[in-house]
Each structure stands twice: as C-alpha cells, then as structure tokens.
Design brief:
GO molecular function, one term: metal ion binding
Domain LIM zinc-binding: 9-69, 113-174, 214-275, 317-378
Shape: elongated
Helix content: 10-25%
InterPro entries: Znf_LIM
Order of helices and strands: EEEEHEEEEHEEEEHHEEEEHH
Number of helices: 6
Organism: Acanthoscelides obtectus
Number of strands: 16
Keywords: LIM domain, Metal-binding, Myogenesis, Nucleus, Repeat, Zinc
CATH superfamily of the largest domain: Cysteine Rich Protein
Length: 435
C-alpha cells in the first residue's frame, strides 16, 4: 500500500502547508511565520498587535482605518483626527467583503420575561436593571428622546417605561407658572399666552377620611408616608402635629404626650398636668396656681407615701431597724444586712452614719464610734468615757509600768502563766484596795 502523507493545514495567505515548527495562529487559522504580517502596511505582527478579519491579518491601526468608523471626530485608530478617504484601499488586490449586513436575530423570550423594550432574552453580560426588570444595554435608553441612560440619569415613569430626567419632567412633572418641566426654563403651559397666573390648589388630606382608629388622631384623615409624624405609636399629619391648647407646631423634642391621648408643648403640659401651688412654675418659668384651692390641688395630686416601712418584708429579710422592704435606691449594707438610708443611724444618739463611722455592735445594732466605746469599750482607770479616778487624800496613786517584764513577780499560781508577772487586772484590783 503506497505511503500517503498526512494533510497539513494551509496558510490562508500563500496557500501552502503549515508545519508545527513555523506556525502562527490567529482567528483559528494557521499562518507561516513569514506570512504573519499586516495585509496593508506589511508590518510584522505578533500576538499583541494582530487583528484578524475573515482570514486576513491587519495591525490595529490598519484594521481601524479599513473597518473602523470614519468621519469627523474619529481618529481611525491612529490616535488623531483622520480625513483619510481610503483612496489607498481601492486597489484590486484588497479583498472586500460585500456581504450585506443583517441585524442579528434575537431570541424572543416568553411574555413578561424578556427585555421590556424589544422582548428578547437578556443575558447577564448585557443587562441593565430598572424597576426590577432587565433591559438590553442597547435598549436602555429614553422612551422619548432615545438618549442612552445609566443608573444615574434613568427615571422610571408611571407607564412602566424609562426616561431621562428632562423628558420625565416634561411628561410627568408639575406644570404651570414657575415650573420648568425639567427643561431648565419657566413653563406656563396653557397659560403661556395669558397674563393671569394659574391658581394653585392645596390638597386637603383631612378630607380623605380613614377608618375609625386608624387615621390622624386630630382630624381623622388618612396619613401618608410623606407627611407622617409619630407620637405615642400613632400617626399624625405634619400640619396637625401641634399643641392642643396653644396650637404651637411641635417636633420630637418639645412634644409631650398627655394622659388624655393628645399632644402638648412642654409649657402647656406643665400648666395642665404638672404640679401646682406655691413654688411650682408649671413649666412656664413663673409661679402658677391657676386659682385652685388647696383642697382641689390635693385631690388632683396623686397619692405618694414616702414611708417605706409601710411595705413590710418577710421576717428576717427587711431592714433590721423598721422591718420594711429595702429597695436598691436606698439600701445601706452593714454586717451582711440591708438597712434603709434613713434608718442607718446610731441606735443611741441617732447620728446619721456611713460606711466609715458605723460600728456593728454585739446587740446586732449599729452605733457611732463614741457610743460604741461607751457601751462596749473597756472601762476603768486610764480609759475614756468615764470620770477620771481621783485619790481621796490628795496623793497621786502609784503609776505602774504596764510592761510585763517590770515590777515584782506574782505569787506562784497567781500571775501570768507565761511570764510570771502580775497581770493588769490584778494590778487594778490592788490599786482599788489602796483607795
């Protein structure tokens, strides 16, 4: 069987076979290394500057001049304005593709799932979102002037179409004297030829009544989000959110919720619901009695009993002095027990105490230091809180050195068991016998 060589790919430029050692690939075609150059200027190409068009190779500049946009303002890919008419491209050796340019067929999507403008499928690489719908990038333009839009200047109209801001203002914006309709000029519309300015109308939201208990507490109308003011969990109109008595406009700082379910300013709230009588300003900065008698003031004043001893605690858990319940705001601690602040005083002289002055006595009471010393401190000659001992005959008693290693030792069995000297108690008894 005769040998049959393998078919090698042909170079599109010279038509000869291309072997692996000399091949250059571009656009799916294999070229010779010597044929891998621009078809117009003959410049040698590489993978960074090659441009393929229908099996023809061009550098980027020549490809832009031949196939790029032309006319005033386009540089033809050369980085400058070009008035080139393309006369050097009219030769017979240039292959020109004369196939008619046909619009690409876009696959139609089911109703409501494609582009709202053309109805075709929208893929992630070209989608533009507006109003939760996906548009083609080429279809994302104004419905009036066909201006290309982006996420900054797009405006969604009530007819479910998209517009630029100027066209949206002209079509859906307010009209009349003083409004420019988004075009940057004053527009009087139907009053353009008239000297009379149109009448402005203000919609009264109070006329749109809401269901009972759901509208504005002042007027009963429906409260919309643009004019909503909240107070005490209820919605008010902005124009209705004012003081009930003086009709002063309120805000979140100076508004006071009254017990009657209405709102007041701080001054009126103080006059109506604050304390009355001599010394109270009622929130107005001056003394205010409103002509009320003491009996009327006492009846309207809520009952308050400051005596916490009336709230008895379980046995052993309350204040040791009065037995009442001790709350955190008034508690004082001593010996592991909680005391009322007003009960935390000396049991003898009733002097108010604190954590420094208080002394816990063995009787489970608290005392000041002076009373504690008088009650439970040592007594006798040389200790305070008792009258000083004096000698009847005027002679000063002998002063004994309290140190244990001085003076005579005691009789056996009568002194200190460790050192043998007379103890202080024995010494005091001997001194008393002398007197």
């Amino acid at each position: 069987m005769p040998f049959k060589p393998a078919d090698n790919p042909k170079c599109p430029k010279c038509g000869k076979s291309v072997y692996a050692a000399e091949e250059r690939v571009a656009g799916g075609y294999k070229f010779h290394k010597s044929c891998f150059k621009c078809g117009m200027c003959g410049k040698m190409l590489d993978s960074t500057n090659v441009t393929e068009h229908e099996a023809e190779l061009f550098c980027k500049n020549c490809h832009a001049r031949k196939y790029g946009p032309k006319g005033y303002g386009f540089g033809g890919g050369a980085g400058c304005l070009s008035m080139d008419t393309g006369a050097h491209l009219q030769g017979d050796d240039i292959v020109v593709n004369r196939a008619p340019l046909l619009a690409k067929a876009i696959a139609k999507a089911p109703d409501g799932q494609g582009c709202p403008r053309c109805g075709g499928y929208v893929y992630a690489a070209e989608q533009m979102l507006a109003r939760g719908r996906a548009f083609h990038k080429t279809c994302f333009k104004c419905g009036e002037c066909n201006k290309g839009l982006d996420s900054v200047n797009v405006t969604e109209g009530p007819d479910r179409d998209i517009y630029c801001k100027v066209c949206y203002g002209k079509k859906f914006g307010p009209k009349g004297y003083g409004y420019g309709q988004g075009g940057g000029t004053l527009q009087s519309d139907c009053f353009a030829v008239s000297d009379q300015a149109p009448k402005t109308t203000v919609a009264d939201t109070a006329s749109i009544k809401a269901k009972p208990g759901q509208g504005c507490p002042r007027c009963g109308g429906v409260v919309f989000a643009a004019e909503e003011v909240l107070a005490k969990g209820r919605q008010w109109h902005r124009k209705c959110f004012k003081c009930r008595d003086c009709t002063k406009t309120l805000d979140s700082i100076n508004a006071c919720d009254g017990p009657d379910g209405d709102v007041y300013c701080k001054t009126c709230y103080g006059k109506k619901w604050g304390p009355h009588g001599y010394g109270f300003a009622c929130g107005s900065g001056f003394l205010q009695t409103d002509g009320l008698t003491e009996d009327e003031i006492s009846q309207s004043r809520p009952f308050y009993n400051p005596d916490t001893t009336s709230i008895k605690a379980p046995p052993g858990q309350g204040c040791p002095r009065c037995g009442g319940m001790v709350f955190a705001a008034e508690q004082q601690l001593a010996k592991g027990t909680m005391w009322h602040k007003k009960c935390f005083n000396c049991a003898e002289c009733h002097r108010p105490l604190d954590s420094v002055l208080a002394c816990d006595g063995p009787d489970r009471e608290i005392h000041c230091r002076a009373c504690y010393g008088k009650l439970f401190g040592p007594k006798g000659f040389g200790f305070g809180h008792r009258p000083t001992l004096v000698c009847a005959d005027g002679t000063a008693p002998a002063v004994h050195d309290p140190r244990p290693n001085s003076g005579p030792k005691a009789a056996p069995g009568q002194g200190c068991k460790r050192c043998g000297y007379v103890t202080l108690l024995k010494m005091l008894i001997n001194n008393f016998k002398v007197f």
